[in-house]
Each structure stands twice: as structure tokens, then as C-alpha cells.
Amino acid sequence: MSKKTYIQAITDALRLELGSDEKTLVFGEDVGKNGGVFRATDGLQAEFGEDRVFDTPLAESGIGGLSIGLALEGFRPIPEIQFLGFIFETLDSIAGQMSRERFRTGGTRHMPITIRSPYGGGTHTPEMHADSLEGYLAQIPGLRVVTPSNPYDAKGLLISSIRNNDPVFFLENLKLYRSMKADIPDEAYTVPLDKANVVREGTDISLIAYSAQVNQSLKVAEKLEKEGISVEVVDLRTLSPLDEETILKSVQKTGRAVAIQEAQRQAGIAANVASLIAEKGTLYLSAPVGRVYAPDTVYPFGLAEDDWLPAEDEIEAKTREILNY
Amino acid sequence: MDNEKPIVDFGAIRDALGKDFEPVQVMDGQAKVIKPEIVSKYSNEQLVEFFKLMLWERTLHQRSNALTRQGRLGFYAPTEGQEASEMGSNSAMKKTDVLMPAYRDIPQLIQHGLPVYKAFLWSRGHVLGNEYPEDFHAMPPQIIIGAQYVQAAGVALGIKKNGTKDKVAYTYTGDGGTSQGDFYEGMNFAGAFQAPAVFIVQNNGYAISVPRRKQTAAKTLAQKAVAAGIPSVQVDGMDFLAVYEVTKAAREYAAAGNGPVMIETLTYRFGPHTNAGDDPKRYRTKDEEQPWFDNDPLIRYRKYLTDQGVWSEDQENEYVEQVKEDIKAAVKQADEAPKQKMTEFLGNVFEEQPQNIQQQITEFQAKESK
User: Fold this and answer.
1) How far apart are CA A237 and CA A158, in angstroms?
2) Largest CA distance in chain A
3) Is the entire prediction scored with pTM above 0.95?
4) Which of A154, A221, B65, B176: CA 20 to 30 A from B167?
């Protein structure tokens, strides 16, 4: 066991998988000698060599195509897109190509690719760095979208993603990179894909969240506990496809739910959670499903982030509203 | 001061661009041998085999055209006129090379090893047409123009990393495709990694209705490889031997570890872009088309072989009949493909089924068992 930050946990996972599977390759813009713009790949090129960990020209679409071609030659690519806002440059390689490959070849070819990319607000990044674009990705058949909320999950989910034989989009929250430390095992371990995690048990209401909003939800749960309100917090972990069983089981128990995201109301995946509950859990409900989200504007200018991003008080207010409905 | 010469003469630089690219030719449109040293490398029997490849492609085109009209094929992009470009380049490759084709490159796929009935199933829209055995080194035809180029760079890098000797990735696009970002990114990545790839541009004059001159101010498409720092060449795409020799040289250069190569073949599409309603009469004149029709890649080779006394009309008829029989059998085999099932589709999305897929498989199992 060692105390690790979220980003150290990610580096750990990459190091272990590079060490145990010689077909794994880490590549992207500045991931080699520089060790990544956030140090996620720090020391990996020195340890495993330039053949396994290497820089690419500055072209996201090329990186996507490179991943597909390498996968066809038997490799297990772990490319990085420097910021999630840059995926539009390579959306064809993700949505139009690698996610379809197993299907379009009748299962005769597959794409064991894990795309890592940081995102998320609260650190005053420039334009197109912090946007929550998981909603786009969640609509792509054949692609898993995974995002951890803590260091333990970051390592275990990344190892599972790399070992999975289908494409996984692995989203890393910028604000979480160094904001928390946790004791995690030093050796390789996995956290299952396609499985949500009940991170706090409760009986009065379910807060269904992911990424940075899981910690916000936990803080709200602690606060309300002092008033005798029992809040269950569900960390989705895999955003697409959703773990419907865990969500519905929680709502069946509590009868009330709030779906929470950092993305705008018209984006993200909270609407998918709400519609799932409406379709399959209506009779469990004592109140409508609440949602917490950002306004339907373009991601804000840095100085306006604090006013724009959904904060704890908004989660608390929405939770109280649904409890008192 | 006004008369002072500017520090840079951009006009002179522009006029010089593309001057290094003169199309390679072995035999001209009148079957006159330009490079006898190339022709003499091959026996008459070998030249007949080359001609048969083009005749096979022409026959496949004619039958595919007819089958499309009868509703027995679906999507079809005609290849007539491009036989020298397609067969000349493809036959210079080895079976172990990885072919990344675009949607017009079906004849290359078949010559590389795809059974004709599978090509027909691809045309109709059946997954069996895309199920390739592992030892068939190719991908199904790419619809997104340019995507095959960035992917070919990846395959080539994979070949290099695997240390596989004497193996290249090769890919095709058209003249319009050279305007795509992925076209440049693919060549540039392969160049930066010095990966064994051969990038082929079949310049057939048109991207649907848009003529080549509207794609770019560049005098040649071959010169676009200069931007990637890789060698390139323009070749008479109606001249089988020229395309064959150039591609063979490109393959050898790339396979030897020298990095990628780009080839532009100058060819012409005799018919429409696809059989889905495109009519070249809307955007081409007879005056423009006729010289190209007269430059048919089959005409010059047929004339040459006939003059040599190694090819006759009877031989041609016999061969065409045999190809037609093969195609007839392939259509029959395609007809026998089982109806596609949603449960099988669902099972091909992921290796391990998430809940949504499991649920939908159960739903469709109930429907399919009725």
C-alpha cells in the first residue's frame, strides 16, 4: 500500500501494464521524454524505451488512425489526447472507426484501444480544455466511456480498460489529479468495467454522480446525515453503457433520486440516468428525478468558472427539493 | 524605392512548384514502347498475364454494372478506365502486404485474396462480406475518405515495431481525397516514423462532379508528398507496366526500411462516380471524355500483344466467358448467405456484453425464435 494521488495512480497503472504486456504502447503529444503535460506518463519512456512510449506529431486524427493501425498489427494502444476538448479533431477515428470495427468485421477484427484524456473544470484552463464532452462519447455504440472519481478506482479502472479488448475512452478529471490522496495497493488490481459503485449507503435518497461530483455528493451526504437524512451515493464509474441494475436497485430502495453532472443540462449523461429511471423505475418513485447540471452555455471563461460550475450547494438544494417534494 | 526588388520572388517560386514531377511512362497510347528496357524484362507470357488482370477487372466491372441495374448488387463504384492503375499497382504487392482500400478499390481486394462473393455481399450490405480470415491482410473498403490513410500509417508503424521484414501497408484514395486532413496526416505520420507504407492516389480527374483543378492549385498531386518530406512520383495511370514498375520500386524502397512513398496515377473514370444516380453528362463534355476513352488502358496493351502475335480475339472471348462464369457462381454463392440476425449484430458490438446489449439480445432472441 502507498499513498497516491489520482494522477500517480494512473501512472502506476500504465507502468504495470507496460511491464506485464509487451504489446502495450503509450503515445501522444509530449508523453515521452516530457512525461506528459500533467506528468501522467512521467518516467515511463526512461523505463520502457522509446519503442513503447513515444511522442507523435501534433495531430489528433493521426493519433486515432495510428491507434487503429497498430491495433490491427496486434498491439494494445494506449493513446493520449492532450485535452478532451481536442477530440473533435479525431471524432471520426473514435466514432466512425474504432468503435465500429468489431461489428463491421463480424467479430474478425477488434480494437483493444484505451484513449486517455483529461477534462473537467475548476482549474482556470484556457478555452476547450475543461469541457465535459462525455455525452457525445456516450452515444457511440461500441465504445465504453469510463471515468474514475478517486485514486483507487483510477488505477483499477485503467488496468481493466487497458486489458479490455474493445475501445475504452478513459476520462481523467483535471481537478482531481492532485486534490486527493489515498492508500492504494502497489500491485496490479482491477476495478470492473460496466459496474457502478455504491460509495455510501443510504435509505432516503440516491445521488447518482460521477467524477468530481461524487466527492461533492459525499460531502452533501455527510452534511445531511447530521439532520438525520440518509443519503445513498452511487458513483457510475462507467458512463456508457450504464450499470442499470445498480442504479435501479438504489432507487428502488430510496424512492428518490438526483442525477448529478458537471456538463451542461443538454449534455452529459444525467438525462440518460433520469430516462432509465422513468422507463424502468417509475413505480419506485415518490418524487420526480432531480438533476444538477451546468447552464446550457458554452463552457465559461476562466474567471466565471466558479459561478458556472455546479457546486455542492446546488447539489444540496436539489437534494432537499426532491426530499421535500 | 518602389522599383526595388522584393526580398523574395513568390511568383518565381510558384511557377517552379511541381516542375520535378513528370509522369513515368513505359508504353504510350499508341502502344509505342517508350522504355524498351522495361518491356524486355518480361516474357510475352508474363505480359499476357498482366493484360488478363486488366481484362478481368473490365469484365468484373461490366458484370457488376449489369448486376447493379438488375438490383442484384447494392452499392457499386465503377472502375472502368482504372484497370492499369488498380491492377498495375496491386499486382506489384505481396499477399502478406496489408491493403487498406477505399470504396472503389474492390478489384484490388479481390486480387489480394477476397472471394468475389464476399465482395458482392459487401456491395449488398451483408456482414459476411466483411468477415476476413486472420491471414487475409486487408480491411474492408473504407467509406470515410482519408481514414484509410491515417490507419495505413498505423499499420505500417506496427509492421516496423513487430520487426516484420519485407512487408508494407498500402492504401488508395482518389484525387478529391488529397484535400482531406487525414490524407496529409497519414503521409506525415508515416514519414515522421519512417514506416513502410505506400500511399497511392488514383487521380481519375473527378471527385463526383468536382474536377481535379478545383481541389487544389497544386500542379500535381504527387508534389503534396513534399509537405511530408517523403518521395513521390507521378505515373501514367493508363499504362499498366509503368504503374507496375513504379509501385514495385516504391514497395521495395519502403520494405527496405527507407520510409513511405507516395504515387499519383493519372487515370480517368469512364463512367459515373457510383451507380447511385450520378450522371457524368451533367459535368463532363464528350470532347473531354473522348481522348481518355481512346486512351483506354486495355487498347494499347491489346494492340501490343496482338502485334506480338501472342493474343487473339478468340483468346479474349474465351477468357471473358470464363470470368463471367466465375462471377455467375459468385452471385449464386452470395445468394446463399443466411439472413442477418439482430442477435448476431448485438453479439458483435463488444467481446464482453454490457447490460444494455444483454437485455437487447434477450429481446431479439424472443423475436427471432418466433
Assistant:
1) 11
2) 59
3) yes
4) B176
First to last CA, chain B: 90
Residue B276: the pLDDT is 87
Residues of A in contact with B151 (CB under 8 A): 65, 68-69, 72, 97
The H-assigned helical ranges of chain A are 6-20, 44-48, 60-72, 91, 101-104, 134-138, 151-163, 212-225, 244-254, 270-280, 305-308, 312-323
CB neighbours (10 Å) of residue B95? 12
Preferred mutation among A70, A100, A115 to probe B, highest tally of B CBs within 10 A: A70
Digit-coded pLDDT (tens) for A126-175: 999 999 999 999 999 999 999 999 999 999 999 999 999 999 999 999 99
Q: Where are the beta strands (DSSP E) in B181-295?
A: 197-203, 206-207, 210-211, 232-236, 261-266
Of A57, A69, A107, the CB nearest to B151: A69
β-pairing verdict for A257-264 and A205-209: parallel
DSSP A301: P
**Cβ–Cβ contact B127 with A under 8 A:** yes
CB atoms A105 and B130 under 8 Å:
yes
- B93 within 8 A of B168, measured Cβ to Cβ: yes
- B188 in contact with chain A, both atoms CB, cutoff 8 A: yes
Q: Tell me: the pLDDT tens digits for A275-292?
A: 999 999 999 999 999 999
Q: What is the pLDDT of residue A109?
A: 98
Contact A176, A146 (CB under 8 A): no
pLDDT confidence tier of residue B1, bands split at 50, 70 and 90: low
Residue with cell 459535368: B283
Residue A137 phi, psi dihedral angles, 5° rounding: -65, -35
B155: cell is: 499499420
For the residues of B312-329, what is the DSSP string, one character each?
-HHHHHHHHHHHHHHHHH
Sequence-distant (6+) residues with CB within 8 A of B4 are none
Query: What is the identity of the amino acid at B178?
Result: T
- The whole-number average pLDDT for the span A196-202 is 98
Question: A44-72: per-residue pLDDT in tens?
Answer: 999 999 999 999 999 999 999 999 999 99
Angle at which helix B313-335 crosses helix B44-69, to 10 degrees, equals 50
Q: What is the ipTM of this complex?
A: 0.97
B251-289 confidence digits (pLDDT tens): 999 999 999 999 999 999 999 999 888 999 999 999 999
User: Do residues B27 and B307 make contact, with C-beta atoms less than 8 angstroms apart?
Assistant: no
What does the radius of gyration of chain B's CA atoms come to, in whole angstroms?
22
| Residue among A70, A97, A106 minimizing CB distance to B157 | A70
Question: Is the CB of A69 less than 8 angstroms away from the CB of B169?
Answer: yes
Catalytic residue among A52, A76, A129, A291: A129
Continuous segment of H or E residues that includes residue A209: strand A205-209
Cis peptide before A300 (omega within 30 of 0): no
Q: Which of A51, A68, A237, A239 to mutate to test the interface with B (most CBs of B within 10 A)?
A: A68
Residue B140, CA distances (Å) to A45, A106, B218 in order: 35, 11, 31
Interface of A with B (CB under 8 A): 25, 51, 56-57, 59, 61-62, 64-75, 92-93, 96-97, 102-110, 141-142, 144, 164-166, 194, 238, 241-245
Q: SS in 3 state form for B54-87?
A: HHHHHHHHHHHHHHHHCCCCCCCCCCCCCHHHHH
CB pairs under 8 A between A and B: 144
Dihedrals phi, psi of B180, to nearest 5 degrees:
-75, 150
Question: In the numeric block, which cell numbers belong to residue A154?
Answer: 483510477
Residues 6+ apart with CB under 8 A from B70: none
